Amino acid sequence: MLEPPQKPGRFNYGAISLLSQDAPGLEVLGKDGVWKQVEVIDGAFVVNIGDLMARWTNDQLRANLHRVINRQVTLRHSAAFFLDPDYDAVIEPIGSCVPAGTPPVYAPIVFGRYNEAKLDATFEFRRQPLPGASPL
Questions:
Q1: Greatest alpha-carbon span in the chain
Q2: pLDDT at site 129
Q3: Backbone angles phi, psi at 91, to 5 degrees
Q4: How far apart are CA 3 and CA 15, in angstroms?
Q5: Each residue of 23-39: pLDDT tens digit?
Q6: What region does 45 belong to: left with phi over 0, alpha with psi -120 to 50, or beta?
Q7: Between the CA of residue 12 and those of 5, 71, 95, what are the distances in Å?
Q8: How does DSSP classify residue 53?
Q9: Are 76 and 23 in contact (CB under 8 A)?
Q10: Going by C-beta distance under 8 Å and a sequence separation of 6 or more, which residues neighbour residue 72?
Q11: I need a surface site. Which of 44, 75, 94, 98 has the fewest CB within 10 A?
């Protein structure tokens, strides 16, 4: 069997994602720099935290760099649910996550603007003007 091309990883932008998968393919980058396959457990969900959790927890929780590579000859199906705050929610480190006498790692942000900036940086089409649309 041919080895599929290697793909770069990505982080989820929001708070938490839940993933149901029926076959292997999801991989996370370990602290040792080696990609590790996430075990498929029938009836279970994979819980993944996104970049936003680092902001809320002052870097106590960090998002996993992950990717999907289907190394099988059969189809792989997955369904994801992304839990994010309201568009206008102000995100700042939780007080109990900031040690006394030290400044927070992150300044407050508005989730919607943060998320749009992440999407714009990821997807080229979001930076292109719509055909026939007048500039704002």
A1: 57
A2: 80
A3: -110, 125
A4: 33
A5: 999 999 999 999 999 99
A6: beta
A7: 22, 22, 24
A8: H
A9: yes
A10: 23, 24, 25
A11: 75
Closest CA to 75 of 1, 17, 21, 6: 21
Q: Which two tokens stand for residue 111?
A: 């989730």
Residue 46 has pLDDT above 80, yes or no: yes
3-state secondary structure at position 103: coil
- Give the ranges where 10-136 is alpha helix by DSSP (H): 51-56, 111-122
Contact of 54 with 63, CB cutoff 8 Å: yes
> Tell me, what amino acid is at 119?
L
Cα distances (Å, whole numbers) of residue 25 to 4, 43, 70, 90, 110: 11, 17, 5, 35, 33
Nearest-angstrom CA–CA distance, 45 and 16:
12
Query: Structure pTM?
Result: 0.77
Token readout for 15 is 């708070």
B/e letters for 40-65, b = 16+ CB within 10 Å, e = fewer, are: beeeeebebbbbbbbbbbbeeeebbe
